[in-house]
């Protein structure tokens, strides 16, 4: 394959995700507030770079905590 700058296709300089359908059809709302989101992300990367934790277990625990928070908020997808 030869890569050239002569592409007939236009690539957008800025790509955006439109989540309107998720908000409307799925009635999606955020579960995590900003502080909790930063805690989850920061803790994961901290453990990743220290190489001192089982990242699979950490991730599974974060998912469980996320689900519990969603249940407390009575998110529609958590209802039986």
Describe this structure in words.
51% of the residues lie in helices and 0% in strands. It has 80 residues and is mostly helical. Helix 2 packs antiparallel against helix 3 (55-72). The longest helix has 18 residues, at 55-72. It starts with 19 loop residues before the first helix and ends in an 8-residue tail after the last helix.
Question: What are the defining features of this structure?
Answer:
mainly alpha
Topology as H/E string? HHH
Helix percent band: 40-55%
Number of DSSP strand runs: 0
What structural class results from the helix and strand content? mainly alpha
Average pLDDT number: 87
Percent in strands: under 5%
Poorly predicted runs are none
Please state the overall shape, judged from the principal axes of the Cα atoms: flat
The largest β sheet comes out as: none
Helix tally? 3
Question: Distance between termini?
Answer: 52 Å
Work out the radius of gyration. Answer: 19 Å
List the helices and strands and how they pair.
Blueprint: H1 20-25, H2 34-50, H3 55-72
Helix pairs in contact: 2-3
The gist of it:
The protein is an all-alpha fold and 80 residues long. The chain has helices spanning 20-25, 34-50, 55-72.
């Amino acid at each position: 394959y030869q890569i050239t700058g002569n592409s007939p296709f236009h690539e957008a300089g800025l790509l955006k995700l439109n989540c309107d359908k998720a908000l409307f059809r799925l009635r999606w709302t955020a579960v995590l507030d900003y502080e909790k989101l930063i805690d989850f992300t920061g803790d994961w990367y901290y453990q990743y770079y220290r190489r001192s934790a089982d990242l699979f277990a950490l991730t599974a625990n974060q998912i469980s905590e996320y689900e519990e928070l969603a249940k407390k908020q009575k998110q529609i997808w958590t209802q039986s």
